[in-house]
Amino acid sequence: MDFITGTIWFLTKLANLVGNYGLAIIILTIIVRGGMWHLNVQQQRSMKMMQSLQPKIKAIQDRYQKDPQRMQQKLMEFYKEHKFNPMGGCLPLLIQMPIFILLYSALISPQFIQVAGDQQFLFVKSLATTMRATAGISENGVIGASTGDRFILGNNAVVYFKDGTNTKVKVKDPAKAVETVGELKPGEDVDLSVSLDHIDLKYSELDKIEKAELTVTNSNIRENETLTFDRKEGELVATVPTVPVNKTWHWDVLLLIALFAITMVISQRVMMAMNKNDNMDPTQQALQKSMGTFMPLMIIGTFVVIPIPAGVLLYLVTSNLIQILQTVIINKQMEREDELKKAAVDDSELKNAKDANNK
Predict the structure, then answer these.
(1) pTM above 0.70, yes or no
(2) Which sequence spans correspond to the domains of the chain?
């Protein structure tokens, strides 16, 4: 089982438990963020320590600014002395990135579209829809198409043999298995072909194939059609009618992008407010403020260019909300720890003062 299949299998188990794939994605987000709780605590401790050490770090940088190699050596000694890892705050982000890529690959895959692509959640009409994709009507005997569209196959096929038997098999490399014969003209029939090499059977069994049922997906509009491919020499071929479609805006997905931007801004501002430090370098403060303003705009621009499925955006929005909650809880916890340490120091000083007076 590959990672994408495993992710969809886990989401399906969760969806069967809670009744909806949207809720399953939210629960998956909670599981991921919960599993990273300890790392988030370390991240915020690292940021807090960085702020407390900032004046000394700046002093070292100013002192050795004409000798970069010496500066790095002194900084490393300083970090080692205080048991501080300057990269500690980046670890949660580095771990989350592969998770995001995996979820994106899973939710945009033919397997997910087959099992849950048309599922709704709250105001989201389809978890597999992207902002500019036109939602096609699946399994209606025709497939929507526009010039330049690409077709991909589902992960499985039902193969029928000449002796009347049939079996379910895997499709090898489904994203590249199907080819369009000739030019794709929306509104006209399109011929599709699949090489027998993409059917996961022994070579001796391939020659016995008479036909196969394969799920074809238009990767642009997320529409599925189950087609019967007939055997023709070393290939399986099918003809399917097409209807022209036009790209359109999906305002539900656009709203998710807006929610992601809003929650990201709030998360950054909460983080900055919790870690506000008067000793911070003004240049660094200005940089943080600029990043908090321009980063959401850059990400929105990226999401407009790159087709992000609604399900992935739902994961990102939920992740931001949990991040805000975690930031507040962890900082409150660290504040209590600081108060206890301060109280312990005050008690110690008071006791020493009493002991001195008694002498």
Answers:
(1) no
(2) 3-110+249-343, 146-244
